[in-house]
Amino acid sequence: MAKPGTDRARQGALLLLQGVREGLSLSDQAGALKALPPPDQARAGRLAAETLRHRDRADAILSTYLSRRPAPRIADVLRLATVELLEMGGAAHGVVDAAVTLTRALGKRGQAAAGMVNAVLRKVATHDGWGDLPPQAMPGWLRAPVVSAYGEAAARAIEAAHQAGAPLDLTLKPGAAAVAGAQMLPTGSVRLHGPVQVSALPGYAAGDWWVQDAAAALPVRLLDPQPDERIADLCAAPGGKTMQLAAAGAQVSAVDISPARLTRLSRNLARCGLQARIVEADALTWRPDAPVDAVLLDAPCSATGTIRRHPDLPVLRDGSGIGDLVDLQARLIDHALSLIAPGGRMVYAVCSLLPDEGEAQIDAALTRHPGLSVETPHLAGVDPAWITPAGGLRLRPDYWPDLGGMDGFFMARLRRD
Ligand SMILES: C[S@@+](CC[C@H](N)C(=O)[O-])C[C@H]1O[C@@H](n2cnc3c(N)ncnc32)[C@H](O)[C@@H]1O
User: Fold this and answer.
1) Residue 298 near residue 238 (C-beta atoms within 8 A)
2) Of residues 351, 354, 412, 414, which has the active-site annotation?
3) Considering its fold, how many domains does the chain have in total?
4) What is the pLDDT of residue 1?
5) For a FRET experiment, which of 11, 76, 298, 341 has its CA 20 to 30 Å from that of 360?
6) Which residues bind S-adenosyl-L-methionine per the record (predicted)?
7) C-alpha 93 to ligand 1 mean position (Å)
8) Does the CA dihedral 348-350-355-357 come out positive or negative?
9) Which residues line ligand 1 at a C-beta cut-off of 6 Å?
């Protein structure tokens, strides 16, 4: 028998998959399943994410049993059931029956397709060779620059990491108690494996920690904030890095252009009992009253380093707009540098796999700004192989394969003469 609520969760997952086809990200749709109980919302999110992670592999198997391409909503039912059967270990009887019921609920077209869905999924349930199919490839607009930067073998390892998904990483407030069952990572973040309901974890209500990928925690470690330093956190929301800066005792101005994201930042600060000056402004024009000791610029970017946590990204993006982002990042770097006192420092960071948004931005900034230099990272837990010849830090999802990977990131610490 199906677990209670399982079909509500499957229906929710199909709704999310339809939203992604229509151009909405899974995060944009966070409120779409409000009517479901929280465990069903969580399961729907997991089912949708797993279906997106294995979409091409599911399609490859389904195409051997389909005589023609099904309508999009029926294709979603087939993919979801295929992933449940072959990846998630779902029992054939329950998964196939549920898929047939969901298909029938799709109106006349669904009723006509129910027999086909039943026949195809019975064959899929006994299909051998799922594990032999290669992980889903990155889209061409991303794969080409990744192969050119890191090589074909690395691109395949990154695709395997995308398929594996991401554990949950936490940054602990200084002095906070360890989280039971969490693994301590070499760089100081802690990691939980398996499905977790964040708000039910010990220490959540007390604000002892916040969710932050281990790679995303490194830009602030690289900046090395000191108590009472004046620090501008540009492009700050939802505030994972603001909280690290505030927890180190710095006087932080958290600047972001998005009021909705700043509301999240303000809630996050309140939960963790931390303080920062919150500024809604365009970081291209905002200026503090006096030069600051340091700037953190976590620039808007393609987010291509976060695909293991956002498997919808390759479906939603087509690579257009990256030129505009590169241009915006360069202008943000130039303005950010003008806010720093002489001798001050800045960390530039992007959660991107694309060298155009990372390594090349720093090369270009050094050319535009004589007197600017890169300071080589010396950080606990950072493998020296991750440091680029120019002194930046390049992180990739295929690093730490035995620990569960990390987001793709680039960061560099710059010093003004
Ligand atoms: C990568 S996210 C920042 C993540 C954040 N630093 C953290 O650790 O939680 C980029 C942010 O840049 C903001 N942003 C984009 N363009 C901006 C601009 N011109 N001025 C200020 N903020 C901007 C977006 O609203 C978004 O919140």
Assistant:
1) no
2) 351
3) 2
4) 38
5) 341
6) 235-241, 256, 282, 298
7) 47
8) negative
9) 235-241, 255-258, 261, 282-284, 298, 300
DSSP letters, 189-254, are -EEE-S---GGGSTTTTTT-EEE--TTTTHHHHHH---TT-EEEEES-TT-HHHHHHHHTT-EEEE
Residues 302 and 250 in one domain: yes
Are 235 and 94 members of one domain? no
- Mutation choice for ligand 1 from 223, 256, 296, 407, CB with most ligand atoms inside 8 A: 256
Amino acid at 293: D
* 302: phi then psi, degrees, rounded to nearest 5: -70, -15
Q: What is the residue range of 307's domain?
A: 168-416
Q: Examine residue 344 and state whether it is found in any structural domain, yes or no.
A: yes
Same domain membership, residue 177 and residue 117: no
Q: Quick check: ipTM above 0.95? A: yes
One domain, residues 187 and 100: no
Distance 403 CA to ligand 1 centre (A): 29
pTM listed for this prediction: 0.95
Q: What is the pLDDT of residues 55-104, one digit of tens each?
A: 999 999 999 999 999 999 999 999 999 999 999 999 999 999 999 999 99
